TrEMBL record:
It comes from Pontibacter arcticus. The keyword Iron-sulfur does not apply. It is a multi-pass membrane protein. The keyword Transmembrane helix applies. The chain crosses the membrane at residues 20-39, 51-71, 77-96, 126-145, 161-183, 220-239, 246-264. This is HTTM-like domain-containing protein. Residues 11-287 form the HTTM-like domain. GO terms for cellular component: endomembrane system. Keywords: Membrane, Transmembrane, Transmembrane helix.
Amino acid sequence: MKFLELYFRKTFTVDLRALAVMRIWLAGIVLIDLGIRATDLEAHYSNMGVLPLYVLHQFLWFPQLFSLHALNGMWQFQAVLFMVAAVFAVFLLVGYRTRLATIVSWVLLLSVQNRNPLIGQGGDDLLRMLLFWGIFLPWGAFYSYDAVKKQQPDLQENTSYFSAATVAYIMQIALVYFSTAMLKNSPEWHTDGTALYYALSLDQILMPGGRLIYPYPELLRFLTLTTYYTELILPFLLLIPVYNNFFRMVVVLVLLGFHIGISLTLFVGLFYLINIASITGLLPGPVMDWIDRKLLRVFRKPYTKEFREIFARITQQPKILSFQVSLHQSIIEKDNRRYIRNVLVAGMLLYCIWWNLGTTHLPVPKMPEGSKWFGYMFRLNQHWGMFSPIVFRDDGWYILEGKTEQGTLVDLNQQGGEINYTKPASVVSLFKNDRWRKYSENYLFVKNGYMRPYYCHYMMRIWNESHPGKPINQLEVIYMKEPSLPDYQVSVPTREVLCSCALAAE
């Protein structure tokens, strides 16, 4: 047992300053995410949009799910919740009532994600889990209003911290990459090396950096195999108890380059920023010493020598023995709470590990359906199936073919221009943001056929409201399907009408 305790302490101890940097970064991402989502309050979160509440509850809801955003279908109600979330995200950013700010930010993030699952992606799951584990982490100990107010000199001398929550945080990162590698069990990932070729063949997510490397098949094969084995092997570096600082920095630098590369080649929204933020908490003490000295010391109030001396005298004077006794009792109470918290976190971590490994092809028993309610309630359910087991092949682009009262056909995606079935120069530019791109991806699946009429009617209504001089009375959502073929072959696009809607006859 002593050996096991020593192993865990050497492997899963983190620097409190690094946790604080991660807190600040994640709070900033929450604010950015709220800003992006707020541009579609009506479309994505109201009964007038693409997913009314009754449709959500009929097709996408579990009894265990929770969402304040699902209590009302008016966009004004959503706006209020968004403002509350923004306020607490700012509190988290500056470290004011940090634990409370973390809890509220997590609850409201979980709530808004549950309101519209059709626009979610893997980065959302990671952001949600990081905030969840952050509830149990003291990431307000540095670079925060709380730290300045409390003026705890002991934290100035020792910035190392270990608990069940640090184990959960590091294991969460390891699970993300190991699980996604295990799910990539097709030859295109670990033998043929064609996965990145197919990913860059998707015009819906292709970025300029991807266009530059796309013509080089050998380079793409090398990068594919490198990606697979990086995700497979890198997590184990986090579990090595010796040369801990060195291996942590290897993980941080490799994943930093990895996600910057993804952002330059593929349109993934906030996914890369969330993943980069997740590894900042791994920064070792010597690195944080330099960052603290050069960049961040200005953000926290230094503790003076005089204050330290006063604190030492207070805790040592016999005349305040009663203070010392109460302090001792307080420490015992804190130890008891810490023990309970560690047991609770350890149990939830084991639950998450079982959930993750049970989704892969490893010989691990699947989690019983009767045990999943807990995961759905607290949204501990995870599936890191990015481009797995194979990369999506049904590429193409959308045409919103509207018919005016005069019988003229216009494309709403081209600001009402003449219908043109030629592929746009940039398919990515058709999407307002990554939320709409993800929605359009889900729109393709036959199992999601229920969602199609609501989008069709929404787009027709919005067009008519904003173009009263050029209204349409009919709309067809057309997908120009261009499946990705091997060896740079180009398929002939086919026209598929996914949905057709019209104004009701008067």
